């Protein structure tokens, strides 16, 4: 899964202790909790969170209903149309959240979390609609380039590229050194979108991006430029031979496996990738050979170079939840619980006090970069309504496969939004 990576962790005792530090108005009642932790260790981790909170607040009983990730797209809208939605449910923000609040069943958390939401930094903005907080993230993901230091050295590249001009020059150096510059898992299609998404936030100002997503119409010239940039990248032939048939994460021959085994120099992926790579290589020291750098800047682009692409996982409360629900979310984002989530490898912590749990110095670098980001743009397929975001992803993948045009990628959003074919 691109959003989350899991490893075994022992957490029950620490999470029980963490609950004692939770504070605020709670109120009695039964809280029904929908999350996607259907297997261990996440299933047991979340159960321990519920048990720990109940131990500190005996008047609040939490009933857990683990649900398969793919079922959320259908179950949540149906539940919000009913008279008995869950008290708290997993939320990815963006267009999905914006659609859900139209039901009138999603609780406006703005005032309830105002005293502490600021500690989460830019991460919390992805769960806002029209400036109001309707969800709270519990982890953060950031996309950037993972690269092999040894292969860069072989190509006599001394520093990671800061601009696209540098990036293209490094592609040439790597090719000259007999190294595949970039691995991509285009068989799974979604990795292709990372490139177009990043070109978009480099070419378009943040205001234009926000306005265009809200309007579900990409008619500013900067969106065409993003497609033109992707055209230029493809013309450089940066990817491995047969990349359209390469999976992203399945097996040693995947794009993740290629970098893990030194068969390619770079891959544009999220912070979960080192954990993914670990299972795909016999080189136990591969992590020490990995470096990371943010997506390069584009000369003349209107986008803020401090913007990064990312996402994460979070929760929303509904209007039927007991008053304890916002405080329960505060508990999940408290330092002790966040530390255990970070130690488990479940994304980057949204609470900076938990950053010490990131033992990998490169992951800590990614975390520090995320805290300095001027804006974290949620993946476009999540920021837009589900059907519109999927149409965009499909258009990007088709374009990378040689079908469509740079203009057709941008046009796919408006067509999907209006139902045009």
Automatic annotation (TrEMBL):
Source taxon at top rank: Bacteria
Segment forming the signal sequence: 1-24
Keyword Hydrolase belongs to the record: no
One Pfam family recorded for the sequence: SBP_bac_1
Keywords assigned: Signal
InterPro entries hit by this protein: Bact_solute-bd_prot1, SBP
Record-linked PANTHER family: ARABINOSE-BINDING PROTEIN-RELATED, BLR3389 PROTEIN
Descriptive protein name: Raffinose/stachyose/melibiose transport system substrate-binding protein
Lineage of source species: Bacteria, Bacillati, Actinomycetota, Actinomycetes, Pseudonocardiales
